[in-house]
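User: Continuing from earlier, I have the next pair ready.

Assistant: Great, send them over.

User: Here they are, in order.

Assistant: Folding the first of the pair now:
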Amino acid sequence: MVQSEISSIEHALTHHIRVFLFQHFSKEGLRRTCFATSLGVCLFAGSVMTFSLFTDPLIYDLQYSQLQINIIGGSIAAGLYFFLPMLGYLADLHGPVLLAALSMLTFGPSYFLAAIVYKYKLSYLLMCLAFMLIGAATASLYFCSLLTCAKIYPQSKGLSISGPVTAFGVSAMLITQITKLSYFSKEGSSMTDPFKCFIGFTILYCVLSLLNWIASVMVTVEKEVVFDTPEQNYGSTADSEPFSSPEEEANHRRTFDAFLKEPSTYMLLFAFLFLAGPMEMYVTNMGNLLKVVGTSGASSPISKQVSAFSLSSTTARLFVGGLSDFLENNSRLKGKYAIMGLLLVTCIPGLVGFSMIATNQPHFGTITTLVGCTYGAVFSLFPTIVASRWGVENLGSTWGTFMVAPATGSVLAGTFYALQYSRSCVGSADNTSWNYCLTLPFGIMAFGFALAIVLIFISWGQFTRQNDKYEALSQHEQS
């Protein structure tokens, strides 16, 4: 694996921490500690996935409409995904520690702003801004942990990537259970108190960002080993530290340009858009859907549905993470391309779930479980495929580019759903299995799932053919 040298920014952000860590830890002990710390950070990083817990208080206390709720959800998605291509590129050049520093500067203050806006009923635009910054801070914190884990153990891409992805999925369930404590409930009501939760998140993420900063230093340490930086120079001014050269940045740009020119990149990108966008919309509107879809789910609390979604998502992440690692390390199965087949299979539960909503089926808990399974599998397998195809050393840039898809898809799907809900569902009593207010939007989204499956299948064929050509050429050169 090719590593870039240490940039001046990365050196400035990590030097003193490296001095301290090398004085108190062995290299292997430091690697394990940083990996475990990154996973621990991910266990509490997914507060944005619990946004549906706060939609009812925002609607009742601030009189937000369903469209306004979805605009806030779109703001979260914009912050969470649109900045990732730039953040990923910077992380590849300057190390994940830069993302940890950005999350420390934005996470706590953003939740504090949201708390103040809610308590004093300030401008709706400020609430949108707060959650856009929360999304960007979440992206920085989570992506830093993901890159740290992937670059500490690059030989086990399936597990080193699915580990933080799984922990991030578990975090929604953990945070949901924490917010169910009586302290976080509104007085005289079963609804969650957003102000208390947002203040709690402010404190939590200041601490987590600091821990993430320390853990991400391990990537810099690995670079020092590659470039043979002598440990005895620690404690000096370290003027001899190797900084990244223009040639390194030019090589990174050439690799990234090749990634952008490959047709399969765009087929997978659109497949990801058709899958992730509607599922992000589902997470944002789970509380509202619970009141509309079918008849049996109306009495189920939203916290139970969020926990069920998180549990099914986490189970899927663990399963596909272990299986993809096995497939990738099994040369007889052409592992990195067999993972594409696994992705195809895991799209089916989501297709069934959205079809059930389109036909107004009453089993909302089943729908949540099906969509959660596909959500977890998709967000675990896509980065694994990207890392296997285009390399871990460029994962920040390549996977960051892919994250534009859920951002765009979430905004489009959320706006479409909100407009259709406001136009057809409010006050509507004419609901049958094949003709009710959500048949059109969820029927179209289910069709998008089917189209994504087709695009993944075509990309799978292209990957396999290119691999066969490469193997044939290698054998010819050896002979």
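And the other member of the pair:
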Amino acid sequence: MASSTVSMPKQHLALRKPRPCRPRPGMSVAAPRRTPSAAPVLRSRPERAREATSRLASVWRKIQGADDWNDLVQPLSPLLREEIVRYGEFVMACYKAFDLDPASQRYLSCKYGKRRMLEEVGLESSGYEITKYIYATPDISIPMQHGTCCGRWIGYVAVSSDEEVRRLGRRDVLVTFRGTVTSTEWIANFMSSLRPANLDPHDPRLDVKVESGFLSLYTSDDSTCRFGQGSCREQLLGEVSRLINKYQDEEMSITLAGHSMGSALALLSGYDLAELGLNRFQKQREIPITVYSFGGPRVGNTGFKERCEELGVKVLRVVNVHDPVTKLPGLFMNEHFRALGETYQLPWSCSCYAHVGVELALDFFKMQNPACVHDLGTYIGLLKCPKMVQVHKEGMVDLLAKAKMTLRKHKLPGWPWQDAAMQVGNLVQSLGLI
């Protein structure tokens, strides 16, 4: 059946102009009333940023992973994105402040004092105050040209200011770690065998195992140094415990952030604090522990993963799907090859590495440009501008070049496999893989 249409005469389609209303005799003409339009309110970028984050104080537990970032990762919540970038910039400060000049008195330490470090790296408005620098010493004996001590500055502990507490909704204790730079750290990275963590002497938990190199870097101290700082673990536990006692009457959080090897140390530290119960009070009050991992490798076995989950340690892993470091160690023996049909546990399951936490997967840079796939600056840049195709690399490139020169200057005689390890380290570092 054909549809019918109704046509209107053209004269009816034309709009007739309304006749002007002329005033009658004796009437005054008043000006037409106009509704005053509200002037547009122009707000500065800082004001908009403050408004966007003002709600952080009411939802901070969710942003810190209280419910494992449910509905916040896919799609990525703008508020969570801002927090990830903020903590990533705190980690980036470690790279910017690390001194790789052999002629400097602060060689392989921080260029600046605690009071002005954040200001020097552009974070003067961060709202945090550094309370302690952290040094690490792997249990590897390597003669160095610049003295015998091999403890190197690896990060810092900071705490939020009173003003920042009002914005965050709690007092935040922050611990950050940089990634691999020195030769001893490189060798520690290649020590991929699993060892029992054994961080709680009263409860060894031999089924909880971690990578031996990371554990060595975390727990070893340098007894040859006259003015030794103690192990990385001793320094960190002592300072975090002090801050917890100082602010115990306030709402608190413990946040650990790191890149590459630093993310492994952050996870080990978070697990250690929870295993020892330093974040728990007698009145059943518990301080949440959150780890922000940027391009981090696997740290421990499935027993370690399960224990972290049992203790409530929340981990958000920010990874580039093209980053090979996030697939190590355990390239083959990992969480994907420990069971058949998720029912039958294979005999070697306890020796399989496993990632911990929730993954936030980024996809940037094809392998034609491998130097960028592991760069922390690239991670942060993409999170700031998710639609950008390319990220301008600076800072980290210079750091990697200087670090490679440092490795070449140190000759490591006496070990037949040492030259090969250094060559592999130089290759991996030149590609920006760790």
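Worth noting for the second one:
The chain has a mean pLDDT of 77. The chain is about 35% helix and 15% strand.
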